[in-house]
Write a structure and sequence with these properties.
Elements (H helix, E strand, L loop, with lengths): L2 E3 L10 H8 L13 E4 L2 E3 L8 E5 L2 E5 L7 H10 L7 E5 L5 H4 L2 H8 L2 E5 H8 L21 E3 L4 E4 L2 E7 L8 E9 L2 E8 L19 H14 L4 E4 L6 E4 L1
Parallel strand pairs: 5-6, 6-7, 7-8, 12-13
Antiparallel strand pairs: 1-14, 2-3, 3-4, 4-5, 9-10, 10-11, 11-12, 13-14
The structure holds zinc ion (ZN).
């Protein structure tokens, strides 16, 4: 198995220290604009170089996976419209995990799309309190709190217009870190698509004796086991660590 960078408008050239800075929120780090584009089949990219956002279209409305930070939400909005889709047709708002670079723009996006917010059960309370109880946080609200319309669980399928997104709990990065899988079709061929949730531990988070997240090590172990079972034609790492990769 090898990985080849798809390259489309992407640069994965940042070194590890730059990535570390980005994760702890100490910019500058590359997060420039990306012209929105179709990746494969019904899957489109509407994010930035570092922060990601995916539009999955269906004949009965669309699914949006992640909204980036609040100031970046207009990028998603513009990307969707530039691709010729309507915001009002977004029916479902999915999350990779409850961190500000994934859900910071969710409140705004919910308002302008009326999409239903779905979140993995283990991230529900953190999403709802704006990150206040994030195990790595300091008790302060980080993003506009969002109450989920539906709580989902490991293995749950979300279906719209003939498209199915399956949620896989791959916790550790957050308690509800969710890897999503789907099948895209193009020119009569089917492709397994995996939107990988971040699978790295954040800076400063204890891996053992973590009073705020005692089972973090076990969760990471479980996450890697789960990821190993997924078969991908296309796999997207959803973290500032890297960008879009094609598995070959
Ligand atoms: Zn994160």
């Amino acid at each position: 198995m090898s990985y080849e960078r798809t390259g489309q408008a992407y640069e994965c050239s940042r070194n590890f220290s730059a990535n570390r800075r980005s994760v702890v929120g100490n910019p500058p780090y590359p997060n420039g604009p990306v012209k929105p584009f179709r990746i494969i089949g019904n899957i489109y990219y509407v994010g930035l170089q570092s922060q990601t956002s995916f539009l999955i279209t269906t004949p009965e409305g669309h699914i949006l996976l992640d909204t980036m930070t609040d100031p970046e939400a207009p990028v998603v909005r513009k990307g969707v419209e530039e691709l010729g889709f309507k915001l009002k047709d977004i029916k479902i708002l999915l999350q990779a995990h409850a961190h500000v670079d994934h859900v910071g723009g969710l409140a705004k996006m919910k308002e302008i799309t009326a999409g239903k917010v779905l979140v993995m059960a283990q991230d529900e309370s953190v999403l709802a309190d704006g990150g206040k109880t994030d195990f790595r946080g300091n008790g302060k609200v980080i993003w506009t709190p969002v109450r989920a319309d539906k709580v989902i669980h490991d293995g749950e399928k979300v279906t719209l217009g003939g498209v199915t997104m399956t949620a896989h709990l791959t916790a550790g990065h957050t308690k509800g870190c969710t890897t999503w899988t789907s099948v895209a079709e193009e020119n009569g061929k089917k492709y397994n698509v995996v939107f990988v949730c971040s699978n790295r531990i954040n800076d400063g988070v204890p891996f053992i004796n973590n009073a705020k997240y005692p089972r973090i090590a076990e969760d990471f172990e479980q996450a890697f086991k789960a990821l190993k079972t997924l078969r991908a034609t296309y796999s997207w790492l959803r973290t500032p660590t890297c960008s879009i990769w094609k598995r070959s």
